[in-house]
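Researcher: Please translate sequence to structure tokens.
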Amino acid sequence: MRQVVTAVILILVILSGCGKEKEVTVASEQQPGIEKENVNPPEKKKAKKVLPVSNIAELGERQEACLIPFNGKVYYTGGYNNSMNQDKEYNDLWVTEDFINWSKLMEPAYLIDSYYIKYALIDDGIIIFQPGSWKKDEYFFKIDKDNRITKLQLPQYEQIIKNEVFQYYFDHFDERLYYNPYLRWIDNELYLLDCYHGLFKAVDGKFENIYRSRDVFGIRLASNYQEHNGKLFLIAGGISEIANLNYDGYCNDVWVTEDILKPAAWKQIGKIRPSVIAQYGEEKTRELDEYRRDIYDTFPAREYAVTVSFKGKLYIMGGRRKMVDLSDGKEKYYWYKDVWCSEDGISWEQIVGPEYDENF
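Model: Translation complete:
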């Protein structure tokens, strides 16, 4: 019996030794000519970007505010909030150099009910005002190149204000159908771009349509028009015609043109989020791209944001989106307190605000 056990143990030892001789050695630079296994290194998790602490929340929750770039700074002013049970108008003035730290300069900066703010460049600075029917006691203000602020009244700079395109629009056209549109003079002709209706040309005191939004970038509301690097960008907004009940109508797409007179010149730029393709597959994603405007790898979809071109980059800030509050099941507006930037309108980076969850 002992001989049998001993023989079994001996056989196991021999077999063990044979196994070791068959182990494959991974090739290396020190061991050329030996077969190399396909060994993948462990996947590294992308480190989360730590965003700086900002006081951007102090700016409040605004629709149709205005960002004004001047003299190495960006000024923030105007706007209102009529969402839900609120009815507030803002007539203060803030300034920043980095979109992180904001300082309040004036409040009030204008008369009551002044919130639809525009500006005009002058030789030694800018003047900031609200276009409309000017009254004797109404005032505006000037910021010079030394960043000094001066309150002024008409007739100072009266002709410059009258020639500003939004004041001209107010003075010469009775139509108020196009609220806060994009206006531009081209070859001494006035053109109006409205993200809901389309492009129009002023003819004999009225606007004649050139093309409709539906045929180009889709009917939408509360988008942003932003000139940047010689191009016009149409950014974000909300779609009024929803083709699918699974889509709430908010946009994070970006369109660009170098010639607003030609509808075919408009191009949608940006990539679809990889997570959308992974979830739905390429074929279904192409179907979604026909009507959903919130699936792009840009920034969270929103309406009523503000944008500006500053030091070679596009910036988008704030805005809102209606969502269901899980605490009580009621729909409420969520106001974004963030800032995103891009050099080309395609690749966007968040620089301020709560960390963005693309599934949010």
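Researcher: Any highlights?
Model: Confidence is low (pLDDT under 50) at residues 1-45.
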